[in-house]
Amino acid sequence: MAKGTVIETGNDYGNGKYVIVDHGGGISTMYAHLNKMTVKKGDVLAKGEVLGYVGMTGYATGYHLHLSVYKDGKAVNPVTYFK
């Protein structure tokens, strides 16, 4: 995705290990079910930088990346942001 700043990392029952990135302009993304995170809160990320590795943490039945995109705090279709 686009450059941004890590605003939260965590580990919970549903999402497992996750990272939330603020991209500015009201856009943020969450990457969940990670096996390993390679970033911490406050890190500034370049476009395409690795922030973690696919896993099966949290409530997951197989290895995958759960990607959520938010505009002004509301979930939107991530496909809109792929070119």
Structural overview:
It comes from Candidatus Colimorpha enterica. Residues 2-78 form the M23ase beta-sheet core domain. This is Peptidase M23 family. This protein is mainly β and 83 residues long. The protein has a single domain, classed as Glucose Permease (Domain IIA), CATH 2.70.70. It contains no helices and seven strands. The protein has strands at residues 4-12, 16-24, 27-37, 44-45, 52-54, 66-71, 74-76. Strands 1, 2, 3, 4, 5, 6 and 7 form a seven-stranded antiparallel sheet that branches. β1 and β2 form a beta hairpin. 16% of the residues are buried.
Tell me the layout of helices and strands.
Blueprint: E1 4-12, E2 16-24, E3 27-37, E4 44-45, E5 52-54, E6 66-71, E7 74-76
Antiparallel strand pairs: 1-2, 1-4, 2-3, 3-5, 3-6, 6-7
Protein name: Peptidase M23 family
Pfam families: Peptidase_M23
Domain M23ase beta-sheet core: 2-78
